[in-house]
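Intended use. Records such as the Glycosyltransferase RgtA/B/C/D-like domain-containing protein entry shown here are meant for training and evaluating sequence-to-structure methods. They are not intended to support clinical decisions.
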Amino acid sequence: MGELTVTRAVPSKEKKEAVVPAPSAEEKPVKTPRRWRRPSGPYAWGALVVLAATVTAMVWTYAKTHQIFPDSQWYLIYTYHYMGYDNAHGEQIVLDYIRDHGTFKPYDYLWASKPFTLSYRPRILLPLLSVPWVALFGPGGIVVVPAVAFVVAMFLIYRLATIHASVPASAAAGVLAVCSPLIAKWCVGGLTDSLALMLHTALLLLLPWRKPATRWTVAGLALTAFLVGTARVITPYTVATVAAVWIWAMWRDRARWRSWTAAAAGAAAGVVAGAIWSKLVSAPLSSTDHFYSMTGGRARTLGEAMPWYRETVPTALSKEATTVLSSWPLVLLLVLSIIASVVAWRTVVPWLVLSAWVGATGIFLIAPFWTMFRYEIPMLPALVVAVAVLLDRVAKGLLPAFQQRPSPTTEAG
């Protein structure tokens, strides 16, 4: 009888690998490199529409108006100073440029240590960023940075709006804003308004709308709030906005109160640092000296200033209102934002709009002059968000396609 041989099948190498389970994610984490994903879909198209409208408004403004303003002289002399020119030479280049173009009468002095000149010392951001462009194009290069900042600001405003409303509504509100000539007028010339607008909007975007604040976002808020002070003093807007949004969060988003409080504290630290910076750099100028100069030597205290305010404020308000009423897109933006504050009263909208008005009032009380909406430019993010929310609600009521909104992550790209 033959022997019974038992043989055991030996699995092949391929079968062994198939049988052995793959290590879990916890055992062997897989690191995938982060790649930049190009925005696509409705969000990208909405951004393109807003940017196209912004560029069109800029081109129209360049064609119709001048871009060098009296205040541009101060930013130009500091730009030449940072380029290594001595004060007298830089001043002469600027004054010759202003005289040759004949848009307005140049100032008699630029480097004198007087309150008006000292108050411009903290605004170093535009002169520093303009150094390569002025070196390349001459004094006219001072308009390059404001133009780029305006484009970036409008994109950031659109992005902020998409956090609170749909893409079509956000795009429509952004286009409405740039339709007003008063917006582009101050944002594409040799001034700091578009830089301040861009940084103010960036600060709003860093707030913890969707995700909890991290130490990096808190640091970013502090840095952005500080940089605003190096562009233009819009402290009433920053303080009013951050305070209003924090109060809203304590009411409507209590589960994340620590996150909102940390974010507000970061922004507050930046504001304080900016105020200290301004005081140190503009020394020996004090706020009292500046106020005395602004009132034409009529007042150093609030009590002394009351007659001056009673004389100045009504005239300035009347002129400002007349100017604003002459721009129908701006009037529509303001009216719709007020309606949105009533319709969407449970959202952050009324808090944003109210804080924008508080900021505008604060700036006006500090300098009650007719500015043709220049000092109100930082209101733009709040107004666009409010109008976008209103348009979104109207569309949802009229069009079935708007009833189901895509998730915020997909919308915001």
